[in-house]
């Protein structure tokens, strides 16, 4: 019982910490490349508006980055404080992957971040752009390594077990494990979407508050275009990802679809209340044969059912159904909302006169959608991670075997402390974003479109 | 394959050395920027900004050495990693919360409206002191063999205070190097006060360590080890004396020698660390687990080592570049 409580509390604590952490990487990964884009456009056009955009968004980047760093440091200690069994059994594989992340990504990001943020007047323009590129490369590398590890936990291969400890036999197989390419693509695209909608949302806020600078126009356009361009790709990538999961983690797909019996002509459920005790769904509303069609590309294709994953003695070997089922729908639903809004805006902007063509309700809709990327990303991770339960490493290590022997009261107290701090920081973060937008909207009302740039020969002024 | 002998023997030593090196680099680098954080309440508003500016471009990379150290513990000595971190559960959590407060305060204090800035200044200070106290406490418990008796706790509280003083001292030395005018004068005064705390701290730990462990007593107080090790305390004493003399003469008219206290303080940290490392080798969990028993599979360590040998020089190179770019007196931190 004691251990059970520690297990539950440790899971909540880990989930809380990683959920908080991922909010900021999803922003910094793509925003780093957007900053590179701004600098590149400025170098090409010498139009000051790109530097204005750069200096506005670099503030958001710096803030998000700091939030990512401090919560990430917490993450790396959690393995030891709460999940000692994880490293003890799969440390030979997780270890080198984490080490490579630290060595090839964290240091590079951290060092060049200083130069990127504060070095503008100290280094030549090319070196500053170089630092910006290296920071973006760093965050992307970091994503690569951590997702290799995470994907390996979902679809492990390239190792052998000796006395309960995993030993690597084939590093190529470990790194290029079956779900890695799909997960990496899906997460990078998710980051692009998060940033696209954040830029669009904050720019819409500034626009509605009356700012009419060239910068806010360019930013709003960029955000809308990013969203509209990436979302179809994301939906396609998500579909491919699901097919891959069907092959390697069928129990997860069964939970996502809320399908109890392995059979053909499985409907695509739009709504249902899975009842895990009765092992059936209530209030089903679905598209006939939809799930079969999506997953097997045939109307009568067979889709795995949850009842296949119950042991003889009644032990349940599939993940909790409700959490996975609903997280998945929140993610896909958010994705659909993104598609609808960004394509509607694109259409209106083409027909009308650019931003001016956007009616107020559309602008207003972009504001809450500024955080739609966060919602979909969290929902997606919940689908993935809860869908892996009861395993920590599929088929190799169960979650309860990895938990540390720490008194429940101790875990509970640190959990409360983290939750309070994270709550306060989230409020502070969002209010600073709003504050930055308002200050910009109040200060930058003068139209600067077409403003000539003095001495526009050199791309970025040195010194 | 046996060119360098049995990797199962030398790899753990190499990784223990790498981990020790990361901790040492961390303690010196984040030590000075935590120290500056602890000193901020002593400066006025403009001085606070300048103090933060003096560490702004560096703190993130400095903290990465902590990630590196815990990462090496995690990857190279998984068995020890769990034991140590679960035993230190609470101080680790306090340190992490301190680091969170501090790291975010850096950004927030520069971006919020003025009235809120004060609250973030407090968070910056509180985070810095929580971090250093927690680290000192962990050091104390570690020295005492990670047991939870009252004497260990008391000793750990003592090391918590002394490490905080030590960080403030090296922080003040950093400010002597990076600040000018009134702030620099203040920093010299802080350093003059801090050096006495350092003397007490180094003394207390040096006395306590051999007393709590007979093994460590024998390592230090047997012949010939005693004479071979004598240079460590002697050099430390000479360094402290030297720093003290220099501090009395600073600041000089043309700002020469402003770098000396910081260099001296760093050297002092290195010596103290070497003494500690010698006391504990080859244990990674004091008296319980040696580095050999705790190490990962040699094949996995080898993979990391190959990467480390290529990457660490590169990291050193671009870190040096960053310090070079931001050399000289601290200026206001500006994005443009
Ligand atoms: C999809 C991307 C992603 C995911 C799933 C994670 N991280 Fe992360 N992490 C990043 C992407 C990232 C990043 C983009 O590289 C960050 C965010 C901001 C930053 O500084 O780098 C980062 C920062 C960051 C840092 C601070 C690095 C520094 O000092 O610069 C640490 C220690 C970690 N992370 C550790 C973890 C651990 C242990 C994770 C999993 C259990 C984890 N991260 C999940
Ligand atoms: C970044 C986005 C991520 C999110 C939002 C996330 C979320 C979660 C959630 C909600 C759980 C709890 C599942 C449950 O217990 O029912 C979990 C478990 C876990 N995840 Fe992730 N995860 C993420 C990424 C990762 C990565 C990259 C790793 C490791 C490389 C990882 C390692 C783990 C571990 C060790 C557990 C077991 C602890 C537990 O069950 O709570 N996660 N994660
Ligand atoms: C709309 C169509 C989408 C589909 C069909 C889809 C599909 C999927 C599937 C099947 C998974 C689970 C993979 C597994 O663990 O096996 C997943 C995970 C995830 N999704 Fe989506 N997704 C969609 C949209 C989005 C959007 C819009 C975002 C964010 C902006 C997003 C972010 C994520 C993230 C972060 C994960 C967890 C990481 C991973 O396993 O890839 N998804 N998605």
UniProtKB/TrEMBL annotation, chain A:
<feature type="transmembrane region" description="Helical">
    <location>
        <begin position="361"/>
        <end position="382"/>
    </location>
</feature>
<feature type="transmembrane region" description="Helical">
    <location>
        <begin position="97"/>
        <end position="120"/>
    </location>
</feature>
<feature type="transmembrane region" description="Helical">
    <location>
        <begin position="220"/>
        <end position="237"/>
    </location>
</feature>
<keyword id="KW-0408">Iron</keyword>
<comment type="similarity">
    <text>Belongs to the cytochrome ubiquinol oxidase subunit 1 family.</text>
</comment>
<feature type="transmembrane region" description="Helical">
    <location>
        <begin position="54"/>
        <end position="77"/>
    </location>
</feature>
<keyword id="KW-0812">Transmembrane</keyword>
<keyword id="KW-0472">Membrane</keyword>
<protein>
    <submittedName>
        <fullName>Cytochrome ubiquinol oxidase subunit I</fullName>
    </submittedName>
</protein>
<feature type="transmembrane region" description="Helical">
    <location>
        <begin position="326"/>
        <end position="349"/>
    </location>
</feature>
<feature type="transmembrane region" description="Helical">
    <location>
        <begin position="415"/>
        <end position="437"/>
    </location>
</feature>
<dbReference type="Pfam" id="PF01654">
    <property type="entry name" value="Cyt_bd_oxida_I"/>
</dbReference>
<keyword id="KW-0813">Transport</keyword>
<dbReference type="InterPro" id="IPR002585">
    <property type="entry name" value="Cyt-d_ubiquinol_oxidase_su_1"/>
</dbReference>
<feature type="transmembrane region" description="Helical">
    <location>
        <begin position="132"/>
        <end position="153"/>
    </location>
</feature>
<keyword id="KW-0349">Heme</keyword>
<keyword id="KW-0479">Metal-binding</keyword>
<keyword id="KW-0249">Electron transport</keyword>
<keyword id="KW-1133">Transmembrane helix</keyword>
<keyword id="KW-1003">Cell membrane</keyword>
<feature type="transmembrane region" description="Helical">
    <location>
        <begin position="20"/>
        <end position="42"/>
    </location>
</feature>
<feature type="transmembrane region" description="Helical">
    <location>
        <begin position="187"/>
        <end position="208"/>
    </location>
</feature>
From TrEMBL, chain B:
<dbReference type="InterPro" id="IPR003317">
    <property type="entry name" value="Cyt-d_oxidase_su2"/>
</dbReference>
<keyword id="KW-0812">Transmembrane</keyword>
<feature type="transmembrane region" description="Helical">
    <location>
        <begin position="155"/>
        <end position="177"/>
    </location>
</feature>
<comment type="similarity">
    <text>Belongs to the cytochrome ubiquinol oxidase subunit 2 family.</text>
</comment>
<keyword id="KW-0472">Membrane</keyword>
<dbReference type="Pfam" id="PF02322">
    <property type="entry name" value="Cyt_bd_oxida_II"/>
</dbReference>
<feature type="transmembrane region" description="Helical">
    <location>
        <begin position="7"/>
        <end position="29"/>
    </location>
</feature>
<keyword id="KW-1133">Transmembrane helix</keyword>
<protein>
    <submittedName>
        <fullName>Cytochrome d ubiquinol oxidase subunit II</fullName>
    </submittedName>
</protein>
<feature type="transmembrane region" description="Helical">
    <location>
        <begin position="301"/>
        <end position="326"/>
    </location>
</feature>
<feature type="transmembrane region" description="Helical">
    <location>
        <begin position="68"/>
        <end position="101"/>
    </location>
</feature>
<feature type="transmembrane region" description="Helical">
    <location>
        <begin position="189"/>
        <end position="208"/>
    </location>
</feature>
<feature type="transmembrane region" description="Helical">
    <location>
        <begin position="259"/>
        <end position="281"/>
    </location>
</feature>
<feature type="transmembrane region" description="Helical">
    <location>
        <begin position="122"/>
        <end position="143"/>
    </location>
</feature>
<feature type="transmembrane region" description="Helical">
    <location>
        <begin position="228"/>
        <end position="247"/>
    </location>
</feature>
<keyword id="KW-1003">Cell membrane</keyword>
